[in-house]
Amino acid sequence: MSQTKTKLLRKDAPIGVFDSGVGGLTVAREIMRQIPNEKIVYFGDTARVPYGSKSKETVTRFSEQIVRFLHTFQVKTIVVACNTASAYALDQLEHDIDIPIIGVLKPGAKAAMEATENGRIGVIATEATIGSGMYNKYIKEWNRDVTIYGKACPLFVPLIEEGLWEDPVTDEIARRYLTELIDIDIDTLILGCTHYPLIRSTLGRIAGDQVTLVNPAYETAIELREMLADMDLLNDEEPGLGSNRYQFYVSDKAEKFVRFANSIIKYGILSAKTVNIEDY
User: Fold this and answer.
1) Which listed site, 149, 150, 172, 195, has its alpha carbon 20 to 30 Å from 244?
2) Measured between alpha carbons, how far is 86 from 98 in angstroms, rounded to an integer?
C-alpha cells in the first residue's frame, strides 16, 4: 500500500471484520482485547453459512459482496476472520481493494512454525481449508523441512453452535479426530477454524501437554496491531459513549446471532442488524 493511500485513512475509522457466521467472533473478541481503542464493524454471513462445503468461486463471490458492504463504513482495514475465505478469497480481495487486508491463515501458520520443535504440525479445520492446502503452502514457504498433517473436523462447528463446548459428546468426537494426529507425534496443533478456540480446553486436554495449541484468532489480532502501528493507523483515543464502537450485521437470524455472540463476547452486544448482502 502506498504512503499516500495510507494517509487518506483515518485512525479513528473502524476495522471491518467478516466471517461466514459466528466463528469469527473469536477473532473480534481478540481484537477487542489486544487493541481496545479500535472500533469494529462485524458482518456474519449467517444466511449462507457454512463456507467450508462451498466452491472457491462461490466463497470468493460472497467475500467480495461483504467487502463492498464493509466499505460503506469507510473502514481502515479488513480482517477476513474465516479460514475458508482466507484460503479461497484473500488473494483476490488483496487485488481488488486499496486498503490493508489480512486473513487468519498466515498469522496462524507463522506461529505454528515458530512453535514446533520436532517439525510435525497438525491442522484441524473444515474440509475446504484442509483441501486448499494453504496452511501447508505458507509454512513450507518459511521452512520446507516441516511436515503438516491436516484433519477435517466437520462435526465440531455444529457441536459448538449448539453450546456443547464442554460435553461428553464433544470429548468423544475430539478424541476420535485427534487420535491419529497424536499417534504420529505432532507437537503443534493449529486450530484452523475460528470456532475451535471455544473448545480449546477440551482439545488441549485430549492432545496433551506435549502439544502446543496455536489459536489463529489471537495471532491475527497481534499481527493486526503490529500492522496498524507500522502504518500509524492505531486509534490514539478510546471511543466515547454513543460512538457505535462495536457494530454487528448479519444476513439472517439476528436474534440467534446475538444470543451466541453474548456467550462469547462479554461487552453487552445488544443488537445485530440484518442486511440483504446480495444487494452488494
Assistant:
1) 195
2) 17
Residue in 109, 186, 189, 193 annotated catalytic: 193
The domain locations on the chain are 3-103+219-279, 106-217
Catalytic residue among 82, 130, 134, 217: 82
**CATH architecture of residue range(s) 106-217:** 3-Layer(aba) Sandwich (3.40)
The DSSP H or E segment spanning 172 is helix 168-183
Whether the ω angle into residue 50 lies within 30 degrees of 0, i.e. cis, is: yes
For this structure, is 153 an active site residue?
no
With contact defined as beta carbons under 8 Å apart, do 89 and 63 qualify? yes
Residuewise pLDDT in 10s, the chain (280 residues): 444 345 588 999 999 999 999 999 999 999 999 999 999 999 999 999 888 888 999 999 999 999 999 999 999 999 999 999 999 999 999 999 999 999 999 999 999 999 999 999 999 998 888 999 999 999 999 888 999 999 999 999 999 989 899 999 999 999 999 999 999 999 999 999 999 999 999 999 999 999 999 999 999 999 999 999 999 999 988 877 666 789 999 999 999 999 989 988 877 677 899 999 999 9
pTM (two decimals):
0.92
Identical fold between 3-103+219-279 and 106-217? yes
What is the architecture, at CATH level 2, of domain 3-103+219-279? 3-Layer(aba) Sandwich (3.40)
